[in-house]
Amino acid sequence: AQSVTQLDSQVPVFEEAPVELRCNYSSSVSVYLFWYVQYPNQGLQLLLKYLSGSTLVKGINGFEAEFNKSQTSFHLRKPSVHISDTAEYFCAVSDETSYDKVIFGPGTSLSVIP
Amino acid sequence: GAVVSQHPSWVICKSGTSVKIECRSLDFQATTMFWYRQFPKQSLMLMATSNEGSKATYEQGVEKDKFLINHASLTLSTLTVTSAHPEDSSFYICRALRDRGPNEQFFGPGTRLTVL
Q1: Between the CA atoms of A105, B84, B32 and B112, what dihedral angle is there, to the nearest 10 degrees?
Q2: Is the N or the C terminus of chain B less surrounded, counting Cβ atoms within 10 Å?
Q3: What is the full DSSP assignment across B43-106?
Q4: pLDDT tens across A14-61, in order?
């Protein structure tokens, strides 16, 4: 069975500083990995996804993530955050045998401080 | 891009009433839809998988008689919370599959249910 861990439940960071949100997963088969952002009282928006190929994935709003198979990680990074990046971020995983079932991590609340 | 809508976006009801939430795929046919529940400050928990024309598959611990799911057409799935109670207050989100594969999934904007 798959699982997703997001070790940091809350991450405060000053505006224009870099940020990394950590995500680790466990799976016995090849995985697909996703990062979603959720603004207050809204649905989910896909930031980026890793399906195959290059391990460095670039997404929207200046975010990127790197898939590290040996460390079973998919950390999300942004070199300079803005106030508007304040939101909840979810890492998620599915796999090629059950691509339709997506398992979400517990989420990381990013607060950007002016 | 593919669009999924939910109606209503928010609803407040009295305890004991039933509430129906609709999930529609606006520009594609979705053979499979998923329903998630999200409590405040928590992650999304899969409740059930809905396939067009067949009975929904519920996750362990989800009461099928309380959360009725109907996927009557390729563009519409409904979740009915029967005899709602305050503990059912939550954010309900649907996800629709346009086709097979990880590229073909789209989330609805969510429905906020508050039971008084």
Answers
A1: -60
A2: N
A3: -EEEEEEEETTS--EEPTT--TTTEEEEEEETTEEEEEE-S--GGG-EEEEEEEESSSSTTSEE
A4: 999 999 999 999 887 788 999 999 988 788 888 999 988 899 999 999
Q: Which of B6, B44, B49 sits opposite A104 (nearest CB)?
A: B44
Residue type, B11: V
The amino acid that residue A66 corresponds to is E
B35-64: pLDDT as tens digits: 999 888 788 899 999 988 888 999 999 999
| Residues A34/A39/A44/A47 CA torsion (nearest 10 deg) | -30
Task: State which amino acid sits at residue B17.
Answer: T
* Partner-chain residue, chosen from A32, A51, A104, that has the shortest CB–CB distance to B43: A104
Q: Which residues of B touch A (CB under 8 A)?
A: 6, 32, 34, 41-46, 49, 91, 93, 95, 97, 100-103, 105, 107-110, 112
